[in-house]
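Board notes (copied after class):
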Amino acid sequence: MPIGAAVPRASQAQSREVIFSSIDEAEPGPIWRSLFDRLWPSYRNWHLSRGYFGRPNRKRAEQALREHMPELHPVFLKLMAIAGESELVGRFLPLWQPPSDILGGSHAVRASGEPMMVRNYDFSARATDGVILRSRWGDRQVIAVLDCLWGCLDGMNDRGLVASLAFGGRRVIGQGFAVPLIVRYLLEAADTVEQARPLLARLPSHMAYTVTVCDSQGDCATAMFAPDRPTLLTNLTVATNHQERVDWYKHARLTATVERQRLLAERLAQASISDEDLIATFLAPPVYSHDFTHGLGTQYTAIYMPRRGEVALRWPGSEWRLSFDRFPQETRRVARR
C-alpha cells in the first residue's frame, strides 16, 4: 500500500476542516443507526476493495468474534439487528481480516503522580470519523473515539483503564482483527492493566500495531502486535510508528517515527516535566504532524486522566473537555493548520 494511501473509508470531505461530534447513547439504538447510515457507504467500499469474496463470510467472521471476544458477541447481535441483518454487514462488523489500514500517531503515558495518557492521531481527514461516543454496552461505561462503527482509536472506561493504538511500521498482513476492535474489547472487558495483559497476549491482530494501556493506579503495559510473530508485551510508556526497530524505512522517514519516539522518551525522563509541558510536546513538530497532503496530518490530540474520568481533545488554539460526569452532545468544526 502506498504511504498515506489507505482505501478511503469515511465521510469527511478532503479539506483542512474536520467535524467532530460527541454522541451519548448507552446501548446501541437510533443514534447508532444514524451513524451507521452516514458511514456505512464508505466502509462498504473499503470492505469490498478486493471484491465480494475477498473477505471471510459472516459465519467465519462471527465465529472468530465468539472465540476471541465472547463479551462483544451480544453487542454484535444488537448492532446487526439495528443495521438490518445483511450478510455484508455481518462480514464487516467482526473486523476479522479486514483490508489493510495504516493509522499513524504517537502516545505517551506519564505514570508518576496523577496518571495521564496523551496521544496524537495522524491520518487523512476524509478517513477520520470524528465521533466520540459515551456508551454502556456491558458492565462498564466507555468514552472512546470511534473507528469502524464500533471500534476505538483510543478511549477510557469508568473503572480507570485507558487504551490507545499506533501503527507498528510493518506491512505484513495476516489472520486477526482490526486493532480498533481490540481496543474496544479491552475497554469493555478489563478494569486494570493487570486484567488487560492476558487479553493483549492472546488477541490476534491482522497487522503490526502497538497498543498501550494504563490505569488509574499508574500501571502501564504496551503490546506490540504482528500477525507473523508472537505478541511482545512490554512496560514501555511511549509508542510511535515502529516497534523494536525500523522495518519500513520510507514510512519511518516520512513520519519521523524515530525522532518522535526519542523526543517523547526524553520528555518523560524529565522528572520535573509538567502536564502542560508534556501536552505542548504533542502540539508541536515533530510529534504534531502538518503533513495533511499525504494523509498523515494530526487530526486531534487526546489527553486522558483516568482518576478523574476526564478526556480533553486539543487542537492548536482550542480544547474540548468531556467526562463521565459531563458529556454534552456537541459538534465542533476544527480547521487544520
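Comment from the instructor: The mean pLDDT is 93. The chain has nine helices and 15 strands.
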